Amino acid sequence: METILELRGLTKRFGNLTAVNDLSLTMRKRSIHALIGPNGSGKTTTVGMINGTLPYSVGNVMFDGEDITGMKNHTIARKGVGRTFQNIKLFATMTVLENIMVGGHTLNPRSTNIVQYLFRVNNSLREETVLKEKAEAVLEFIGLKEYANREVGSLAYGLRKITEFGRALMGEPKLILLDEPAAGLNPSERVALIDTFIKAYERGTDFFLIEHNMDVVMNISTVITVLNFGTKIAEGTPKEIQTNPEVISAYLGRRYLKEVAR
Amino acid sequence: MNRILQNRNRFAPPVVIVIAALFVPLIITNSYIIHLLNTAMVYLIAVYGLNFISGMAGQTNLGQAGVFGIGAYASALFVTRLDMPAWLGILPAILAGLLIGVILGYPSLRVKGLFLTLTTIAFTEIARLVENNWQLIGGALGVKSVPNFFLFGIEIKTPNQFYYLMIVVVVLFSIITYRIIHSKWGRAFIAVRDNSDAVPSCGINLAQAKITAFTWSSVYGAIAGAIYSQCINYVNASSFTTDLSILFVVMMMFGGLSSMYGLIIGTVIITLLPELLRFLGDYYQLIYALIVMLFAIFLPGGIWSIVKNRQGKNKGGPNHSGVA
Ligand SMILES: Nc1ncnc2c1ncn2[C@@H]1O[C@H](COP(=O)(O)OP(=O)(O)OP(=O)(O)O)[C@@H](O)[C@H]1O
Ligand SMILES: [Mg+2]
């Protein structure tokens, strides 16, 4: 059993608040690993540490057999870790296609410099065409082809979420960290999004998934890790987690009640 | 076929503009106006450069006049002291631009944006003070009798000759600028402005993207300065103040950010404005400030945004209903 991602004793403190406390977990290759927990339990913080956005002094992160502890955010991205954000972070003045194309920077980040690009006209035109065609293929894959030339700022919320996923896919990552991808989507959008995830998963991308929507989590995850106040309280298959008393009292119970009330 | 049509659509307006520009000296015989247009074209190169770091990457840079001045001095000193042909003066300017980009950009762009604004203001003032007081490079007198360009044995002397030379230079810079804007680097610059948090996740080194934009900005600014020294045949520190830096920013914003048409319109109008408003006499400064302010409030996207919005409306596009 090969490992794609391994966290060893990760700890993050903001002042005297311990957002993530001695978190260890192992994520198998070819799996969808979910990280769930109440609001403020440290899920986004964990993602930030994995992809190098948040500095930390305690713990290690291994990705695909390599210690990536302390590496820069863009270096980690180039190694094959993509990410989407809880509060969408797109490039608002660019078109959908251009946003996707920016995601392609991980592919060959050091291929040329600007001066070479300016002189080798044919080469650079070809490179640009290849990038564009690849981005169009991604748009086709996520079902946003007809929106290619729309400015992202003018898109509906659900479409922006999908665009952000497309931008991550464009970089051909081995692993995508998804921070609440289904939040704010209506049920039909949610179904479409899950279908897209499954398709991408079948093409070879693994997912580390943070999500509050239990329909999504329980249906697509292989393994679930549960956080409470920054500490891991449980880990197991969806079935095991659903019946774990501690998880129910700390998280699921409240959550399920809320869902019913809606 | 489709592609050719698309390209024709894109390339037709610039070709028309260039052809129209070729006729301007035949219609406008006032050589002072031609001189102003020449100045505008020189400024345009500095503004094209500024657009990389400020317009596209969104980092406020009030140092472009300092860069412009250093480019002018580097070129003028090189040409006059070493008795070099005028066009070779471009080389030390490029070198100066590169050095400024790395030396100033590296420390100030790694931290928050405001730091860049402050360091660039300080940079302009320090450069001006040094230029003004260093006797070795002419002190308060500056550098005089900077020679003209020679092109195929012809001396570029009259405003009209300089005008045609500048048309060629501007076309060249416009093509380079267009290609950078529409490259992966251009998109990275805009990404920095639009949402810098998401930039590293796309595999882009954020600090390096900013430094690259700033370095290109400086190289353009320094080359513009070098050409300027030959346009007016002397160099004097008193021209390179923070006022000029602000003027570059106004030129960039007035026409419309990161649209090349906008940059051209803004630069030409702002350069000609003193002449157009000359009849106002003492009230000129006041009216000028008012015009700029009104535009900033009511047309934050610049003049070009009017044209662009109209195009946008005609073009249309799929609406929200067709969710994937
Ligand atoms: N930059 C920061 N500075 C200080 N405290 C922070 C910072 N970021 C997060 N926190 C705190 O750390 C804790 C964990 O936050 P985090 O965003 O990781 O939670 P989360 O599990 O993603 O929650 P949610 O479900 O609401 O997204 C919270 O108490 C939060 O207030
Ligand atoms: Mg969160």
Verbal overview:
The complex is a heterodimer of chains A (262) and B (324). By secondary structure, chain A is of the alpha/beta class. Chain A has one domain: P-loop containing nucleotide triphosphate hydrolases (Rossmann fold, 3-Layer(aba) Sandwich), CATH 3.40.50.300. In chain A, 42% of the residues lie in helices and 24% in strands. Chain A has helices at residues 43-50, 73-79, 96-102, 114-119, 121-142, 157-170, 187-202, 214-220, 238-242, 245-261, and strands spanning 3-14, 17-28, 32-36, 58-63, 66-67, 81-83, 175-179, 206-210, 223-228, 231-236. In chain A, α3 packs parallel to α6 (157-170) and α5 (121-142) packs across α6. The model of chain A has no long low-confidence stretch (mean pLDDT 91). Chain B is an all-alpha fold. Helix content of chain B is 71%, strand content 1%. In chain B, α2 packs parallel to α6 (159-181) and α4 packs across α5. Chain B is globular, with a radius of gyration of 20 Å. In chain B, 44% of the residues are buried. The chains are: A alpha/beta (262), B mainly alpha (324). The A-B interface holds A 51-53, 72-74, 77-78, 82-83, 85, 89-94, 98, 101-107, 109, 114, 117-118, 124, 128, 131, 142-144, 146-147, 149-150, 155-156, 158-159, 162, 167-168, 171, 188-189, 192 and B 176, 179-180, 182-185, 187-188, 190-191, 193-195, 197-206, 212, 216, 317-318, 320, 322-324. The structure holds adenosine-5'-triphosphate (ATP) and magnesium ion (MG). Residues 14, 17, 19, 37, 39-45, 86 of chain A line the site of adenosine-5'-triphosphate.
